[in-house]
Amino acid sequence: MNAGACDRFFEYQAAWGREAREFVYRHTEIFRARNILELGCGTGVITRDIVERTMGNVYAVDINRDFLAIAEERCRGKNVKFICMDAHALEFEDHFFDAVYFANFLMWVQNPDRVFSEIARVLADHGFVGILSEPDYGGRIDYPCTAVREKVIADLRSRGANPYMGRRIRELCVTHGLDVNLQCLQGVFAPEKIAECYGYEELFVSLDEETRRCIETAIKSGTAFLSMPIIYGYAWVKKC
Length: 240
Known about the structure:
This protein is an alpha/beta fold. It has nine helices and eight strands. It has helices spanning 3-15, 18-27, 45-51, 65-74, 112-122, 147-158, 169-175, 200-204, 209-221, and strands spanning 35-39, 57-62, 80-84, 97-103, 123-135, 141-143, 178-189, 225-237. Strands 1, 2, 3, 4, 5, 6, 7 and 8 form an eight-stranded mixed β-sheet that branches. Helix 5 links the parallel strand 4 and strand 5 (123-135). The N and C termini lie far apart (46 Å). 39% of the residues are buried.
């Protein structure tokens, strides 16, 4: 997908994660934070959330310059600095941030352990990590046919993503000296909304005719079922 198409998907994706984000914002005291970092900000859909909820300084980083161009336009006039930067090697001083946020991000990084090491380094001793959403496609349920689920997982892997990243969040936090409180939003999609999910149109046409007919019939009759687990929560530095 090009940057414009990705932006439209990010908007759609953010819509059904709003409840989880509000929970995280409350528990990470975003309104008190002086310096805030957003990792993998993409086109600024979540950045817009963050800047509206704090008077602090917001730094939003991504490695995709096309995404950042859209983000800068979306948040024009807001107190946020967009930076093209690799999350594996953050160019910030130690313990600088009161809060570090990310959404739908870790599954796309090459080395999540290295990224978490950087998060722990730049996080202040009193700071919070806000896991706004991280999907786990391995827990996805498709009914009556699982073919699209398997196609999505294979497609994500081919693009360098880890479809099972959600279940690793606790491990990453604990390994890098953080306590963590995790929740799970088990999103259930209305049948007519299923076609809006990640990669649906592109992957659907690759299925055999019988499978496509089965899925189309289930969607039209209202009997199709799709559930997707989204991991969210917050972490903080362990106290000795």
